[in-house]
Amino acid sequence: GEVCNMIYKKYSEFLPSMQSTEELVAQVDELSGNIDVLRADIENKVQQDLNVAVAEFTELKQQLEQDTLVLSVLKKLQEFDRAIKEHKTALREKKYIAAAQQLEKARSILRNLESHKGFELKILKALGRELMVQTQNMLFHLGEEWQKLVVWQLPPSKGESGLEAVVHSELHLHTVASKEEEEVAGPPLVSVLQALAVLGDLHTRLKAFGQFLLKYILKPLISYPSLQPLTEEWPDVFILRFKSEEPTLDQSSPMEVFDKIKLIFEVLHKYLLNVPLELPGEDRKEGRVTLVELLGELIWEELSNCLIQNCLVNSIPTNSSKLEQYTEVIKSTEEFEKVLKNIQFLKGDTTDLLKYARNVNSHFASKKCQDVIAAARNLMTSEIHNTVKITPDSCVALPQLPDPGSGDHLKMQKPSNLLHSGTGNLENKSKLSQYTFSLPACRISSSVEQLMELVNQTLLEAATSTDQCCVQLFYSVRRIFQLFYEVVPTYHKESLQKFPQLAAIHHNNCMYLAHHLLTLGHKYRYCTTNILSKEAASFVDLVPAFRRLGMECFKAQMRVQKGEILERLSSVRNFSNMDDEENFRAANKAIRQVLHQLKRLGQVWQDVLPVNVYCKALGTLLNTALAEIVTRIVALEDISAEDAERLYSLCKIMVEEGPKVFTPLPEEDENKKYQEEVPVYVEKWMAFKELMIILQANLQEIVDQWADGNGPLAAEFSAAEVKSLIRALFQNTERRAAALAKIK
């Protein structure tokens, strides 16, 4: 019963609390429903309001940005206007640097305005025009100021020229500022130049000044030795002008030229060029630079080239002995550059000018080579017919060669040591004739003799020069010979074809040169330690070409002469019908003409060709005539007694007069020997004499001359030719038949 009471008590306590809890749940559910309804209402309404607010905010933001931009543009336009106004004020007060800076400020404002994309204002074009007008106006003012500071007084362009014009040219520098001007805006020169630099127009002005300086002052001083610069210093102006003195030499020495130009730059530096400037946008240290540096960059290259071409080139010595004195020129070039570096006109080391001066050996060689080639070319194009006599004893004038063993620096073997094997012992055993390597007596052009003297002098110069110079000179000498080979036959072509004497002289010239080419390399072998002795400095390879050149020219002339001989003889109709008076006269005339032609050649070649060549040449031509006559007479089918008589008389003229054309020497009595030796030089001489015997002989005598093929007649003619002659000369009889039978 106690348990039941306890349960009841607990239950009665639990029930009300459960009822109150249920009521509470019901209330919560109701409240939750209300909240959901409220939330849905709020979300709809707030979202709407929020969207409206964001849109309004974006619009306000854009409005603000636009207003800010308009404000900044208006500010910039105000600044532009202020800059232009301040520029005008400064320009009126001649404060050029400030005026230029205000213009540049306005320019940068305008650039800034133009950079806004999608913001094109018509006013910007107007501002650009205004800025351009103001800039041009200021440049005009500065130009006028510059022309007042730097005044060129030049002669009128027409009329005077050259030296006269230069003498009347003056440069006036009004760059010495008065005290009042300096107080206003600093020295006018500095403010004008700095303003030009700010506006970017300094380069143009300075370039024009540099060109005037070169044309009217610097280049004339280099070109005219008589010009002397004069300077006058006054309180308000500095004047630079010239006076002209009689020059002692055609060309100034580099030292004199350098001194004059140093003076010009020193005074220009003092009165004009020593101006420090601030250059906008330059990669220089702190952007500072002096006017002289800028001028140096603009004109140094042209000035340097002019100094090289018109001064140093002319000072290069033409003789190796003067090369040592050239150190003075190199030293003065170094000093000249040092002065220009001190005033900052020049920057960097070793310019082209100094390199050129220091490279004197190479220039000396080039100049020497040019002079040598030019002299050689002159000799080659001079007349061939002025000749000199060469005898076996005569030798080209050689300068005194140094002794191979002399001089401390020449550590050389004597030639005798070099030749100890083989040829060194020649003298002991058998001695060569003194004439073994000598030319036969003949005449050569005096120009060719001078050419060989030039060659020898050049090679001697080469032998005592530096290696580089030596090689250049050696190849110049080779070039001389190659030039001769190319120039002479072409330049004198017509004369060599037309005149037999010139062809003979040219032949001798070529043989003379070939003769010297054989030994030329050896001659200078032992004079020196330089490259000529170490290398195979030889000319032997040119020898065959020169011999061929001489031979071909002379052979061509021989062909012309042969042609003339054959043409003259062809006018005679085969020497037939000599009993016809007209035919005989024609034959007689032709033979006389041939002899006359040979006699004329004998005279023009006399004392010109070497005797052996002379005799061979004339012998060949006389042989051509005799061979032609023999061939024509042997070919005759019928020779009457009268024909034979007349043919004999014609042949007799040839035999008597022919040898007389051989007059190789001017002394008459000395020619006898050569006239007697005619059979040696004329191959057909004996045949011709045998033909004459036949023309006068009877049948028996002809048979005797034949002597069964062993007689003199058989030595010159074939059996067929002799039979043909017998048939032509004698009528057909038994005696003739018997004689013919013996010729076999």
UniProtKB/TrEMBL annotation:
Domain of life (superkingdom): Eukaryota
All residue ranges annotated as the ZW10 C-terminal helical domain in the record: 589-743
Cellular localisation: Chromosome, Centromere, Kinetochore; Cytoplasm, Cytoskeleton, Spindle; Endoplasmic reticulum membrane
Gene: Zw10
Protein name: Centromere/kinetochore protein zw10 homolog
Coiled-coil regions, chain positions: 21-67
A Pfam family this chain is assigned to: Zw10_N
UniProt keywords, alphabetically: Acetylation, Cell cycle, Cell division, Centromere, Chromosome, Coiled coil, Cytoplasm, Cytoskeleton, Endoplasmic reticulum, ER-Golgi transport, Kinetochore, Membrane, Mitosis, Phosphoprotein, Protein transport, Transport
Membrane topology: Peripheral membrane protein
Record-linked InterPro entries: Zw10/DSL1_C_sf, ZW10_C, ZW10_C_2, Zw10_middle, Zw10_N
Residue ranges constituting the Centromere/kinetochore protein zw10 C-terminal domain according to the UniProt record: 437-567
Keyword Chaperone: no
Domain Centromere/kinetochore protein zw10 N-terminal residues, every copy: 2-84
Biological source species: Grallaria varia
Self-association state and partner proteins as the record states: Interacts with NBAS and KNTC1/ROD; the interactions are mutually exclusive and indicative for its association in two different vesicle tethering complexes. Component of the RZZ complex composed of KNTC1/ROD, ZW10 and ZWILCH. Component of the NRZ complex composed of NBAS, ZW10 and RINT1/TIP20L; NRZ associates with SNAREs STX18, USE1L, BNIP1/SEC20L and SEC22B (the assembly has been described as syntaxin 18 complex). Interacts directly with RINT1/TIP20L bound to BNIP1/SEC20L. Interacts with C19orf25 and ZWINT. Interacts with ZFYVE1.
GO cellular component, one term: spindle
Family in the record: Belongs to the ZW10 family.
